Amino acid sequence: MREALLHQINNIESQDFTKVSLAVFRYQATHNALYREYLQLLGCRVAAVQQIADIPFLPISLFKNYSIKTGAWEAVRSFSSSGTTGQTTSKHHLKSLSLYDETCRKIFKHFYGDPQDYCFLALLPSYLEREGSSLVYMVDQFIQDSKYAESGFFLDNQAALMERLVACQAKEIPTVLIGVSFALWDLAKKHPTDLSKLIIMETGGMKGRAKEITRTELHQILADAFQVEHIHSEYGMTELLSQAYAKEAGLFHPAPTMKVQARQISDPLSPEKIGRTGALNIIDLANLDSCAFVATDDLVKVYEEGSFEVLGRLDDSEIRGCNLMVTDIL
Known about the structure:
The chain is of the alpha/beta class. Helices cover 32% and strands 21% of the residues. Helix 9 (181-190) packs parallel to helix 10.
């Protein structure tokens, strides 16, 4: 059953997303002990679930205290979230690294083209300084795929990074500068430079390192400093294997393996209306071996065509290094 589902997920662009999602739901409701218990506590009758709207989403906080697996297997790798000293961090155990590798590459190719055709310069200091970051792993795969020797990670040497960026632009090398928000902000303040031919992509993650600003404000600061028309964004987290990308204005478009919906803040089992602020539920079919139905702590607006805007976090949620900016919720 897993192999049949995996084939459908790997070819999801030619498949019926709803049909595959329901098949994954039934598979996980049977073979994922934690999810099965959660459904039982909710009084959910698996056979009665006939549409995506009826599928219960597992609270993301359970990734902190439980090993979430569909089936019985030993993890080949585990990704972990960031957190301050003493915090319990989320862990996402992987049965297959190849599934994550293939998913990331396909998603990037869906939005931008083949990763091998880009030079990737990564400014991810807070992620490089710890183990278990799924973002660092993904970017490292892209760097290894790249046909450009200029690709690489940078930690504190901003001058060397700017020299590399300017050289790539002069050589007309298609280049992506991908960075955590606070590091890009610092780079913009210290090294404003014309990088108008490059892609500047932020991954969120201010984590209290600087004054909290909205994504819109950050994008304007970066756009002015680097003289680009738009700032791109990547949305991902430890508990997901798929990503969403925004090419402008912080409006994210989910990967083909993802669908998003908003739930009511005051009633987590009820959907929120299109265009109204709610908490984010994500279907990530790439999570075949963990749980594909995740109720996150992010506040969003989801729009008719399936895109979404991240507005902040639910009150009292722990701050983590995923793709978040703080703003007023209207």
